[in-house]
Write a structure and sequence with these properties.
- The protein has 475 residues and is an alpha/beta fold.
- The protein folds into 2 domains: 136 residues, Aspartate Aminotransferase, domain 1 (Alpha-Beta Complex); 276 residues, Aspartate Aminotransferase, domain 2 (3-Layer(aba) Sandwich), CATH 3.40.640.
- It contains 14 helices and 17 strands.
- The strands form 4 sheets. Strands 4-12-11-10-7-5-6 form a 7-stranded mixed β-sheet, sandwiched between helices. Strands 1-2-3-15 form a 4-stranded mixed β-sheet. The chain has a 4-stranded antiparallel β-sheet with strand order 13-14-17-16.
- A hairpin with a 2-residue loop joins β1 and β2.
- α2 runs antiparallel to α11 and α12 runs parallel beside α14.
- The longest helix is centred in the last third of the chain and has 20 residues.
- The protein is globular and about 65 Å long.
- The two termini are 28 Å apart.
- It comes from Oidiodendron maius (strain Zn).
- This is Aminotransferase class III.
- One of its GO terms (molecular function) is pyridoxal phosphate binding.
- Keywords: Pyridoxal phosphate.
Length: 475
């Protein structure tokens, strides 16, 4: 049963389906992701709940796309934004001006790496951050040698790094790339993901599995010519493309060592899995494998402002500083004071209220509950993740790991059932989990303020929904 409304929201009133077919007479001026349906209209939010226009109280168990890590309506963040607006300065062109709040945010972010990163470049979105990271990596070599041969990136299959053409080129998600293949860069090459559920042989140890991945990356360097490779790019915990697939212990270090052995850079995309989502502020801190360049985003300002960032090591900064003295890149809406003040307050709250401790504790409890409730379900192939970032992969056959036909839209069916009355819960569906086309999963990524009772509610509703959906679908 759904909980009673809390945090100032009212109890559900008139109930209606989550997504309804549009009336042919109705005109919408908004281009939605799905053109043939209507979405619930949200009118307010508080804590873990959203109130829809039709009077329903919906538990946000995915925080959008793992964004609203403080929940909704946090008064400290709202007041910080209001105070910044009252100065009359919400936007400043970073080409001309500096800002104390921007500088303070950057200092906060570097402090969060224990000083292991050196500078911060603020952007407006995760895709922009990855675009900037790719350009920064190329410029690192260009500053030292204008005739450098380094032009290739190595990324991974089953990855997603953003929607700009550069970021989409680096991505390895087949379905999302397919419409734009003629536009994409030809200097990006892919190796397999680090997906133990689908790739580890029976009885294979972590060490053996990592050694196999290291050999594959080394072979790709040799195939391309080590002197031509700019960087290896990876998400430590793969988000939307694979559904919270974590690195195997030792993997990040092995990948970094191969890159550095050949003078290449390690770029980590932590846009979805970073900023506390996996239990450490940065996912790489789980094994202290410091990247040369890192992209962060979604949890940075918890959705209160659109902002992302690129963090870079001292050696990358030094190359620019000793060379041209500039980063040859820029966008209009970057480094804005209004963005920075929101992100700064979010990061202060996470640190001061010790929310990462709650992420670890509630994440461990969520793992326990999910595996207890769904571990034996015949259509649940894998439950994986870290912190408050959990994926559930669905299979047609548990023994063979065969996925469902993508035309059946199983992940979407789970969302549609979950977000509809009486469940009233939002989860994040994903497809292409197996090969970029086939495979279904959902992601659970609740806020860092969730309680044990909230975890009980999330896991019970999700379990009920999964049973309902798969019980009603013939194999």
């Amino acid at each position: 049963m759904p909980p009673t409304a809390t945090n100032g929201l009212h109890l559900p009133g008139q109930l209606s389906p989550a997504i309804t077919v549009k009336d042919s007479k109705e005109t919408s001026f908004r281009l939605d992701r799905r053109l043939h349906g209507d979405y619930p209209i949200v009118v307010s939010g508080k804590g873990n709940h959203l109130l829809s226009k039709d009077g329903r109280t919906i538990f946000d168990a995915s925080t959008g796309a793992a964004v609203s890590c403080l929940g909704h309506g946090d008064e400290r963040v709202i007041n910080a934004i209001r105070d910044q607006l009252s100065t009359g300065i919400s936007y400043l062109a970073s080409t001309f001006w500096g800002s104390d709040v921007v500088e303070t945010l950057c200092k906060e972010l570097i402090s969060g790496t224990d000083g292991k990163m050196a500078r911060v470049y603020l952007t407006g979105s995760g895709s922009e951050a990855m675009e900037a990271a790719a350009k920064l990596a190329r410029q690192y070599f260009y500053e030292n040698d204008k005739k450098t041969l380094r032009k290739n990136f190595i990324a991974r299959e089953g990855s997603y790094h953003g929607n700009t053409l550069g970021a989409l080129s680096i991505s390895g998600h087949v379905a999302r790339r397919s419409p734009y293949l003629p536009f994409l860069m030809g200097n990006v090459h892919h190796v397999s993901s680090c997906n133990a559920y689908r790739q580890r042989k029976q009885g294979e140890s972590d060490e053996a599995f990592v050694a196999k991945k290291a050999a594959e990356l080394e072979a790709k360097f040799q195939e391309l010519g080590p002197e031509t490779v700019i960087a290896f790019v990876a998400e430590p915990v793969v988000g939307a493309a694979l559904g919270c697939v974590p690195y195997v212990p030792g993997y990040l270090k092995a990948m970094r060592d191969i890159c550095h052995n050949h003078g290449a850079l390690l770029i980590l995309d932590e846009i979805m899995c970073g900023m506390g989502r996996t239990g450490t502020l940065h996912a790489w801190q789980g094994e202290d494998v410091v990247p040369d360049i890192e992209a962060i985003g979604k949890g940075l300002a918890a959705g209160y402002q659109p902002i992302a960032a690129v963090l870079m090591s001292e050696k990358v900064v030094r190359a620019l500083s000793d060379g041209s003295g500039q980063f040859v890149h820029g966008q209009t809406f970057q480094g804005m004071p209004i963005q920075a003040c929101a992100a700064l307050e979010v990061q202060r709250i996470v640190r001061e209220e010790k929310l990462l401790e709650n992420v670890k504790a509630q994440g461990a409890y969520m793992e326990e509950r999910l595996k207890s409730l769904l571990g034996n379900h015949p259509n649940v192939g894998d439950i994986r993740g870290k912190g408050l970032f959990w994926g559930i992969e669905f299979v047609r056959d548990k023994n063979t790991k065969e996925p469902f036909d993508p035309k059946r839209g199983m992940a979407q069916k789970v969302l549609d059932r979950a977000i509809s009355p009486p469940n009233d819960m939002c989860v994040y569906p994903g497809t292409g989990t197996v090969d970029g086309v086939c495979g279904d999963h959902i992601i659970l990524a609740p806020s860092y303020i969730v309680t044990k009772d909230d975890i009980d509610h999330i896991t019970e509703v999700v379990s009920d929904v999964i049973h309902e959906v798969f019980d009603s679908v013939p194999g």
